[in-house]
Amino acid sequence: MDQQEAASVLLSDRNGPRPKHSLYAYLKFIIPSLIGILFFLTPVVVDDKVTIGLGVVADMLKASTKDYLPAFATALLVLSAVIALFAAAFKPRWAQRDSALAEVFTPKGVWLALRVLGAAFAAMTLFEVGPEWIWNRNTGGVMLIDLTPMLITFFFFAAILLPFLVDFGFMEFIGTLASNIFRWLFKLPGRSSIDAVASWLGSGTVGVLITTQQYEQGFYSKREAAVIATNFSITSIAFSLLIANVIGLEHLFVPFYLTVVATGLIAAVITPRLPPLSWKKDEYHEATGKQIKEELPEGHSLFSWGLEQAVRRAATAPGPAALGKNCLMNVSDIWFGLLPLVMAIGTLSLALAEYTPVFTWLSYPFIPLLELLRIPEAAAAAPTMLVGFADMFLPAVLGKGIESELTRFVIASVSLTQLIYMSEIGVLLLKSKIPLNLLELFAIFILRTLITLPIIALIAHTLVF
Predict the structure, then answer these.
(1) Model-level pTM?
(2) Is residue 4 part of a domain?
(3) Where are the transmembrane segments (predicted)?
């Protein structure tokens, strides 16, 4: 069966017979989608930890190469900076073309500066040379030794496997089924439920990656993409368990995670209705225009229309060669484009938190608020309300020494509902084509903190302690 046949619709009128597709057309939707579900959306318990198939294969690669990954990451970052500087200085012919290769290796202005800075920080951290505030184990060491190996392995497999989830009809199928509740509750397309589930079971960065691709392909408007990326890129179950262990709440993991889920949903309803997200326009990416249609035609149920949309999408999916090329460019964009930014911004943010009182000063307004909410050790807890903007690990690291279990519960829960972490999610959003700037990300971070903090405090006082 050719592509035209697979996409054909035999409806003579709106109430006529439904489209008929061959078995091959349905299998082209079902088999790749099942592979995507297996790796992205199926919980797997490994060593008593909940993760997903993508996490399992990424962890296997990381475990077998962990001694070499910091050096490999440094080589990638240095190579990225050298090629970008060469392209900027000599303007070779390939850099002048409108191509994916040129887009990866020709950053301009502040992005070029950050790429060079990221390479320099990585080299200094690897060899422990230069100012200690850069290569210290709690600053550059966290980024190069802890975070970049995870990003290298995780995104390597994510780039290869993500097309199975988004290019063969599964987004259309689930999006149609979930369209009513997501439009009513969140004012979003139903397909955005996939972003949330992929984040929940896998990683917030995977959710952002899906959202970015869907926006650039015309399936989300500017407002929808901004809302989804900042409200549904939730931290995974695996990472939540890690935070609970770090801060000493593993014995309260069930009420802790239920609190995170409940308050996160409330924040997802409220935050998009406030500026700056409410100011975003329902305009689609200029290169593609609007591609999404979730209206239900007459004569169809949600299931039948979702299946029809899925089969049509699968029929137009790229072939193996195109998929391979897209995967290679996605990996290149992350390894050569994203990693230097993560290294640069993450190291600077951690250095501010570790060596300066900036976050302490900024957190002073939270002390009376925490006292009003009857949170013990409010002065010690206040800085943890803001440091999460720099890095997701910092609130748990700073809060683990607080004696009050209730306070540690509040700190951990709030940190997982803030979502905007500059060392990872924030950099990915700034680098993407989703229309969000640094000031808007900080405003959303503060809004989510102010919305979730009183709710979490109420739950902690009344239901948990």
Answers:
(1) 0.73
(2) no
(3) 23-46, 67-90, 110-129, 141-162, 225-247, 253-271, 334-358, 409-430, 442-464
